[in-house]
Design brief:
single chain, mainly alpha
Length: 68
Amino acid sequence: MRAIAETIGQGIGVPAKSVPAAEAAAHFGWMSMVVGVDNRASSKATRELLGWKPEQPGLLDDMRAHYF
């Protein structure tokens, strides 16, 4: 989530900042449980088991190229 927030901040010219969990919960409500989880994802198993290869840019590269 940090990398996404930093990419958005860079794109709109506003620095991203880290906030304590309690402050995030007060600001984002129930959504803070979703964005506060360290849930790393990987396509490694999909690539190895199915031979899948990405054809499009990753999220951050796509954001930088098309949204700002």
